[in-house]
Write a structure and sequence with these properties.
Order of helices and strands: HHEHEHEHEEHEHEHEHEHHHH
CATH architecture of the largest domain: 3-Layer(aba) Sandwich
Number of strands: 9
Distance between the termini: 107 Å
InterPro entries: NYN
Radius of gyration: 30 Å
Largest sheet: 7 strands, mixed
Strand order of the largest sheet: 5-4-3-1-6-7-8
CATH topology of the largest domain: Rossmann fold
Helix content: 40-55%
Structural class: alpha/beta
CATH superfamily of the largest domain: 5'-nuclease
CATH class of the largest domain: Alpha Beta
Number of domains: 2
GO molecular function, one term: RNA nuclease activity
Number of helices: 13
């Protein structure tokens, strides 16, 4: 037999035993696929709630009390979080909650007493960005994006309820959607206009707004400002400009002690004007020390700012 006979000779065909083996293999594969599909069908989808606390405080405070200043009202965070969870149960009835992510700011990322109590709630994780000298949150949007993208990438969630309004969150929404998650934007009713960026509204899969009736049980205006230390509540005649100027210097000393000289260097180039958050903080703390509202006394507010600047400039 020459070398080519093996190539041109009769071809071997699978016998009955080989066909039976193949059939058995196909049957086992079908059984495995059936079990996998059944498991997938019975596994509930999962959702998570992402809360930008800065947005919630500002929007709810403005809606219920007319101000965004946290020091003038109390927010029942535990009750509000539970309300968000309950609402999610009705919106995603066939889904289980992974957890609630609560994003807030804190100086040097050290939890405040309030943030500690929120962190101790079941199914809640507190994530902190930094809080700068002007009480502005830094790094919160990037934390939201990191968590949203990571959970979507690992198929840990199928739906995300995002409570916020900053345009910087658009990239977080796009990242999560790129991995197949649906992102639902929840907001708080705005008092005139909008409190959520339009590009964010355009990108999400659905939108929902909580009105005054929903928010009102969780926001309470403080009856009076609490004085610092043992400062007495003002009684008797209205304070003079010199009195208020002295209080301004006292608040400046407290401000400098908590912020440090680096913040002072940032503030001085703007003299005689104060950034809005610093000016608001000065006013609220001065009113607490005086036991008197300065909202209707423009001359006293000017004296207050003069006293604040007088102290700061002597320390530079």
């Amino acid at each position: 037999m020459n070398d080519t006979q093996g190539l041109t000779g009769p071809q071997e065909h699978p016998g009955p035993l080989d066909l039976a083996t193949i059939a058995a293999g196909v049957e086992r594969t079908n059984e495995l696929l059936t079990r996998v599909l059944a498991e997938v069908a019975t596994t509930p989808s999962t959702h998570a709630i992402f809360v930008d606390a800065g947005y919630v405080y500002a929007a709810a405070g403005r809606l219920v009390t007319g101000t965004e200043d946290r020091r003038t009202f109390d927010l029942d965070a535990e009750g509000l979080i539970e309300a968000f969870i309950d609402r999610a149960r009705t919106i995603f009835p066939d889904s289980r909650l992974l957890r609630v992510y609560w994003y807030d700011g804190a100086r040097r990322r050290i939890h405040t007493t309030e943030q500690q109590s929120i962190a101790e709630l079941p199914d809640v994780k507190v994530r902190l960005g930094n809080l700068n000298a002007n009480n502005q949150q830094k790094g919160v949007d990037s934390l939201i994006r990191t968590d949203l993208e990571s959970l979507a990438r690992h198929r840990a969630i199928s739906d995300a309820a995002l409570i916020g309004g900053d345009e910087d969150l658009v990239s977080a929404v796009e990242a999560a959607q790129g991995y197949g998650a649906r992102v639902h934007l929840w907001g708080i009713e705005a008092v005139g206009g909008r409190n959520q960026a339009e590009p964010l509204l355009w990108e999400v899969d659905s939108q929902r707004t909580f009105d005054l009736d929903f928010c009102k049980p969780y926001v309470t205006r403080r009856a009076v400002y609490e004085p610092f230390g043992d400062a007495p509540v003002h009684q008797g005649p209205a304070p003079t400009r010199d009195d208020v100027r002295f209080v301004g210097a006292r608040v400046a000393a407290q401000w400098l002690g908590s912020r440090g000289r680096a913040s002072l260097a940032e503030l001085l180039p703007g003299h005689p004007y104060l950034p809005g958050p610093v000016d608001q903080e000065l006013l609220v703390e001065a009113e607490a020390l005086l036991g008197l509202s300065l909202r209707g006394h423009a001359d006293l507010r000017r004296a207050l700012r003069d006293g604040f600047w007088d102290h700061l400039r002597t320390q530079y």
